[in-house]
Specification:
This protein has a domain of 70 residues. It is 66% helix and 11% strand. The chain contains five helices and two strands. It has a two-stranded parallel sheet.
Amino acid sequence: MFKEKVSFCDYCYYHQKFNNPEKEMIVLSHLSTKQGVEDRHKAIEEYLLPQINKLLTKKMFQASKKGTDHLMESISPKLREFLVEKNVGFYELITCLGLKYGKL
């Protein structure tokens, strides 16, 4: 299978991957500008947050009655694996969530 070598900003990369999941791409460089960072946050919000939502099960939320620490313990392994796979750091995810919900 042919792998396309490209230079993308992160938003474009996630947009392309979302619309062409079967296509394999190797990103040669990320365009790192202020707009690129904003676009990465937009990509996290539009494409990754819905996927993270799918990781959360009803059972996890029912267990949250035991406390948020218990909920975080049950979510952490799946979330950590997911973030590593998508090359997104916890800090970056938290920043994006803060920007989305106006907490930062």
